[in-house]
What we know:
Elements: H1 3-22, H2 30-36, H3 44-61, H4 63-73, H5 75-94, H6 99-127, H7 130-162, H8 166-169, H9 171-185, E1 189-191, H10 200-222, H11 229-250, H12 264-294, H13 299-327, H14 330-346, E2 357-359, E3 371-373, H15 378-401, H16 408-445, H17 454-459, H18 472-507, E4 522-524
Antiparallel strand pairs: 1-4, 2-3
Helix pairs in contact: 1-6, 1-7, 1-9, 2-3, 3-6, 3-10, 3-16, 4-5, 4-6, 4-16, 5-6, 5-9, 6-16, 7-13, 7-15, 10-11, 10-16, 12-13, 12-15, 12-16, 12-18, 13-15, 14-15, 14-18, 15-16, 16-18
Amino acid sequence: MTSSSRGALAAAIIGSAIVFLDGTIVNIALSRIGAALPTVAIGVLEGQVYIVAGYMATLAAFLLLAGALGDRYGRRRIFLIGLIGFGATSILCALAPSLDVLAAARLLQGVAGALLVPGSLAIITATFEGAERGRAFGIWAASTSAIAIFGPPVGGALVELYGWASIFLVNVPLVLLGVILTFRYVPALRAAAAVGRFDWLGALVAAIAVGGLAFGAIRGQQVAWSEAAPLVLLGVGLVALVAFPILMVRRRDPLVPPEMFRNSTFAAINVSTVLIYAALYVLLYMQSLFLQGVLGYTPLATALVGLPTGVALALISAWAGVLAGRHGARRFLVGGPLLMAAGASWWLRVPADSTPWQAQASDLASMIPPLAVFVDPLPAVLAFGVGIAFVVAPLTSTLMSSVALERAGLASAINNALSRVGQPLASAVIFILITERFYASLAAAVPGLDPRSADLRTAVQPLNAPDPSVGVAIEQAARLASTDAFHAEVLVVAALLLAGAGVNWRWLKDARPTEPDSSAPASIG
């Protein structure tokens, strides 16, 4: 790599990393935020939900618009606007006088983040070619994963030392560094083929489709589908989703040209992305609930259990990207999901009475807390981590190589939007499955129990420790029922991963990722 390409890669990594980091690091400060800030029109819990989920939903809703804007008006220009916007909204979050203002600022921060994610991948695509591109995407995946691993502990320390606002202010120096690197190393190029009127109507319909589905699924889970609002949002999102491809066929200058999906590689990668990433996010979320709510792990122990997955992703991604660039991505995109499915299936062996095995080293006991080795989950998280490490860089590289360079930002935006909207939708469906399985198992274990009782559903919930007032018999039955429900969820996750592997095996035919069409000239913009 040249110094210029390294600088461009660093800028792309920073742009992606701050967006991904703010999707997780804020979780650490939610309790402090809820206690410190007054509310005006929303409740504390509702505000906390939208601080996290609202950010992710607006991020997903505006990805297509952001990717198309970058391709048309210049990736560096849109990327810089995203960086500056992200820095400004981070300061606004830190200075928020109420929970309502913070929730609104987080929605705006999600919009700014949408300008960064597709631009980051498009910058890498435009900077690197061939095996170097695979290596660059591997470094990008490893770096963003490392930041995701170490960011929350650092964020926890910042909250303890300087208060909750510090987790937003930490973005500011990163944004400044990103702006400097972008100005210095990222060329101001855009495709000369960007002609005709910009499809603002298509962008609006896409935002309504993605936003309606995401916000509807999030709100539905929050209120346990007891209100009409989430169903209305889902209905609006589905109508817009159906209308979007019809609109794209009829528009003279569509936001998403239909011929992009006639490319079997591009279509297959996006379908497998929805399946694989839905499985990934659902398992990681439900795994955390199962460990703490059923097996009694502490939050720290739960974080340690998940650490091997993140470490494998950080250590193996760059290597997998290099090999995929040299030998083709198909074997990784089939083998990786299969290994993830094997890791997910291992959870079926973890019983309801599994507990951490504590092994204390006497010579270290005076310096550090007891060392915990988690025997039951370890094979699951290791296999899952290695599997996802095989997927991330090859999938991204294959996606970006399947389209012409002038559509790189749009291709990245489509893929990211699909992965992000797939998560809450899959979670909503699987949540219904888990809930019904849990209360059916509980009713079968405790004769005479009414699984539809509102009082029961308040005191005993799946994948959570029940209220002690329910008695020992129901408490023990709930633990077994939660384990049964979690195992059912694991089977669905494994099925999604097998389907993703099957899509890649069937439709990714080339031994190597297809190089982008570089015949279209580029112009300064």
